[in-house]
Specification:
There is one protein chain. By secondary structure, the protein is α/β, with parallel strands linked by helices. It is built from 15 helices and 25 strands. The longest helix has 20 residues. The protein is globular, with a radius of gyration of 28 Å. 45% of the residues are buried.
Length: 550
Amino acid sequence: MKNKNSLKVRFLGGVGEIGKNMTALEYGKDIIIIDAGLTFPSTEMPGIDLLIPDISYLIQNKEKIRGIVLTHGHEDHIGALAYILQDINVPVYGTKLTLMLAEHKLKEQRVLNYSLNCVNPTGVVKLGCFSVEFIHVNHSIPGSCALAITTPVGIVYHSGDFKIDLTPINGQMIDIPRISAIGKKGVTLLLCESTNVEQEGYTMSEHVVGETLDRLFAENVKRRIIVATFATNVHRLQQIIDLAAKHKRKIAFSGRSMLNVVDAASKVGEIKIPDDLIVDIGKIKNIADKDLCIVSTGSQGEPMSALTRMAAGDYNQVQVGSNDTIIISASPIPGNERSIYQVINNLYKKGAEVVYKSITKIHVSGHACQEELKILHTLLKPKFFIPVHGEYRHLKKHCNLAKSIGMKDSNMLIAEIGDTIEITSKSMKRGEKFQAGARYIDGLSIDDSESIVRDRKHLSEDGIIVAVCCISGYSGEIMQDPDIINKGAILNDKQLQEMKNIVCTTIKGYDVKAVADMGEIQGAIRKNLRNYVFKKTKKNPMILPVITEL
């Protein structure tokens, strides 16, 4: 029997995976959505550009949705917003920089009708039966917030992405006093990120990177410096700007996302740039190497990023050479290692010196390690706990960590995408499953079917064979030898001829004029060719028979 007085926590993304973060809270006739993120495809998804959450359930219940609240401005939390607002036109709430970055994406996707509402940290928004308080936290982008959501069954605390930085670049520490006060009021459910749960101790302060960068600037006085980092790591960008000014270098920004973020962060006062420090990337040829620092996208080896194109010699504005020091100020996102190291290899081949995390402390995470997670759990003392933002191993280790500081097994669980967890002030249990998963973005197209990816993977692995045959519409006889068009399958001339013979033999086995549906003959050709090809090659290419009547 359904409990009408329970809070339903629905997971549309961000559990069992890194990225695509999206959670919905539902009580009675009210729904709020936390974040609207995307993720990037794996190498097993050829041709796919992005993955966003499947929001079929939300579309079916859009009259209940009171708003979307955003924790911060990273792609895995706001990247799907432009697609989602086209189906669900509801108000969006977030901090100033978060909304500025979101608006860039809405304009790029030509979304015209939207409502963005700025909330300051400590601000409270009333959405139906929910009251959402934004709480300042430290992360690798300004404007990051946790959410304390007052619901009819108690407080739900959503950590967002966070770490505890005692020396933040902007001087604003995570709001520990407010978090402690919320813990004293009583927290029914904690939804806490798990990205760095495998790492012991504490996450290093962003200031550590600044010290390393300062040393590298000092050691490369006569060389040109190129720094690749995440465009959204605004505190990192501020440190690079300050160091360029200190070491009397001009700065040129390279990459569209980099320019967008710098523009947005400057407008809201999160980046401060001295006058006359910036030079256009197209006008750097007349600036001496020792007087220039280029800040670029491409720290993850993205195929079309500025750094990747520099490494390949395919970027007209910047030609990398022996007087360049390249600083990659980022850690590889799991799955990107091969791409990054290929870029590093290519940069070395061009004579450049490359500095990356394996060599020195040139990057720190924006996510809490074990001791910081313990602090949050201890301050909040939640009754129930569900780990989020991580693959299954992260979620499991986070449960183990919570258990080590006193949480009972019966008061925590690991959720999957499509799960509904029902919460009351005294209980937590699994509820109904609902339709969820991924939608695939390919250029301007959106597809919900996994068959698209399966077909492309099939084509990439085994190729495609098209068998074309012309028959007489009058007599039903084969008018000429079939054509076998082979793309990607390894077949020799003898095998191709034998396949033509199979097509002819299959067609002659039918009274073509008496066949009502030519698809029956095509199906037989497909089956016979598949059996032959598998016997000869142990491969299973896609086979498309085409019969035309003349």
